[in-house]
Amino acid sequence: MIQDLQKRTLFAILALAIFIPILAIGGLWLQIAMGVVAMLGVHELLRMKGLNTMTPEGLLTLLATFALTVPLENYWKFLPVDGNVVAYSVVILILLGATVFSKNYTIEDAVFPIAMSFYVGFGFNALVDARIAGLDKALLGLCMVWATDSGAYLVGMKFGKRKLAPRVSPNKTIEGAMGGIVAAMLVTLIFMLVDSTVALPYGIYKMMVFAIFFSIAGQLGDLIESAMKRHFGVKDSGKFIPGHGGVLDRFDCMLAVFPIMHLFGLF
């Protein structure tokens, strides 16, 4: 257990040493990086289902994911305000068109890739939008996600007894979930004390309440991915980060948290 924790910590630090500078730089470099990571996430999901991404349909799915993640309208000025959504819709239309001209590619075959491209692409697009609004807003969301994950892991490992969702994730406990919520609230409190403008138009008391919902959403995102892995009979979504699994194993919470932060008007 200790060796596993040490391995997780080491590679988490290495990953952060790469990710944080790119996040700080922001702009096109971050957006391209997030587009590529989103495509890797969708690739993992397609592979779970036994689908090959090196096919016309698979490549269109990856292209759609990238288009939804990156704010294309910021660079291609002829596009409307929601240019990335329009571009995504066009690629999906082409993908659906494949069901017309192919005997072996049906609407049932297209639904899963389309759903996964939206699920992953929309989550990463919300992260990109948060960074455009400000580095502090992106860090607030990410730190809540990381605090939830770490708090749930550490508290669950030491005090966990009651299973949270044994059918999809036998190791997660109610005690761990509560630890994740408390950790997210503490991180939010620290952010609000250091920079009270990070969560405008909300004040510290509302944000402490919101942190509970964000933490729950993040843990639900984690459980959703666990349910997918359980359904397809895999342990990890991939091997992107040693000791941490694939892209989705690290970003599953974020895919749920950032869209809800956007819904609440935090960016």
TrEMBL record:
Which Gene Ontology terms describe the biological processes this protein takes part in? CDP-diacylglycerol biosynthetic process
Question: Which family does the record claim for this protein?
Answer: Belongs to the CDS family.
**Per the record, what is one GO cellular component?**
plasma membrane
Q: From what organism does this protein derive?
A: Streptococcus mitis
Which class of enzymes does this protein belong to? transferase
Residue ranges crossing the lipid bilayer per the database entry: 12-42, 54-72, 78-98, 110-132, 176-194, 200-220
Keyword entries, A-Z: Cell membrane, Lipid biosynthesis, Lipid metabolism, Membrane, Nucleotidyltransferase, Phospholipid biosynthesis, Phospholipid metabolism, Transferase, Transmembrane, Transmembrane helix
The record's EC number reads 2.7.7.41
Q: Which reaction does it catalyse?
A: a 1,2-diacyl-sn-glycero-3-phosphate + CTP + H(+) = a CDP-1,2-diacyl-sn-glycerol + diphosphate
Top-rank lineage group of the source organism:
Bacteria
Q: Name one GO molecular function term.
A: phosphatidate cytidylyltransferase activity
Which pathway, per its entry?
Phospholipid metabolism; CDP-diacylglycerol biosynthesis; CDP-diacylglycerol from sn-glycerol 3-phosphate: step 3/3; Lipid metabolism
Localization terms from the record: Cell membrane
InterPro entries according to UniProt: PC_trans
Its ancestry begins with: Bacteria, Bacillati, Bacillota, Bacilli, Lactobacillales
PROSITE patterns given in the database record? CDS
Q: Principal place where this protein is found? A: membrane
PANTHER family xrefs? PHOSPHATIDATE CYTIDYLYLTRANSFERASE
Under the heading Pfam families, the entry gives: CTP_transf_1 (PF01148)
Tell me the protein's name.
Phosphatidate cytidylyltransferase
Q: How does it sit in the membrane?
A: Multi-pass membrane protein
